[in-house]
Design a protein that fits this description.
By secondary structure, the protein is α+β, with helices and mostly antiparallel strands. The protein has seven helices and eight strands. Strands 1, 2, 3, 4, 5, 6, 7 and 8 form an eight-stranded mixed sheet that branches.
């Protein structure tokens, strides 16, 4: 009878542990779903309007002591569409006389640094060109402009390059999956076809990264570990107590 009782206790403890693990896993899934929907994705128009109203923006080309001054500076430039085309344009390095588009020289294109120069040359060879463009990033409640580069081969194929010299042949989606500069809770306003270097700019809002926030992995992993270890300890204790 004692053996049967011990086995029953162990079986009950195992079932309790399994139920607890499923419960923790359910909570983890709920956290993931809530995180995915915790911040509604803004439209391109909404995010650009927030940028216009921001009191200060890091690396902003428009000057002013406040948002009203910056908007006045922008208004003198042209329409909203013209301003967006100007802000998000891909400017060819070297057009200002710095020889940055000559990949045979040792100087980096657009003063980007040797990491970018090496990544570009590795992709295009010695006959390609480099373009610099800015994308708008919102993180931590503030805005800043981030520089990226477009490397173009002579056959017209292109790849995105970040300031650390990391190459993204798959464009914006590739950048979001693999970059080490932005997080999943950052918002980015950028051209939909980010490696295009001519034509009107169509803007799109995307998250800075596609990975799940690390806090959720920590919470879920620790919870499952605690339940599993606690369950094994409970089973062992009941078996020892029955001897």
């Amino acid at each position: 009878m004692g053996d049967h009782s011990a086995d029953a206790d162990a079986s009950g403890a195992a079932m309790t542990t399994a139920v607890a693990i499923r419960a923790v896993a359910g909570v983890f899934v709920a956290l993931v779903l809530s995180a995915c929907g915790s911040s509604a994705e803004p439209t391109a128009a909404d995010l650009f309007r927030e940028y216009l109203d921001a009191p200060n923006v890091r690396w902003d080309p428009f000057q002013g002591a406040n948002a009203a001054d910056r908007r006045a500076d922008m208004a003198s430039t042209g329409s909203v569409s013209q301003i967006q085309d100007q802000l998000f344009a891909a400017d060819r390095c070297g057009d200002d006389g710095d020889d940055g588009d000559d990949l045979a020289v040792t100087e980096s294109p657009c003063g980007s640094g040797m990491a970018v120069a090496e990544a570009v040359k590795g992709f295009t060879g010695s006959t390609g060109t480099v373009h610099r463009r800015s994308i708008l990033v919102k993180r931590g409640g503030g805005f800043e402009w981030m520089i990226v580069y477009v490397a173009r081969k002579s056959d017209g194929s292109s790849a995105l390059v970040d300031t650390k010299g990391r190459l993204y042949p798959g464009g914006l989606d590739d950048f979001r999956r693999n970059n080490r500069l932005l997080d999943a809770d950052d918002w980015v306003l950028a051209p939909r076809n980010i490696t295009a270097t001519t034509g009107h700019v169509e803007l799109v809002v995307v998250s800075g990264h596609t990975r799940m926030p690390w806090e959720l992995w920590v919470v879920g992993g620790v919870g499952l570990l605690v339940v599993a270890v606690g369950g094994r300890w409970l089973i062992r204790r009941r078996r020892v107590g029955s001897d």
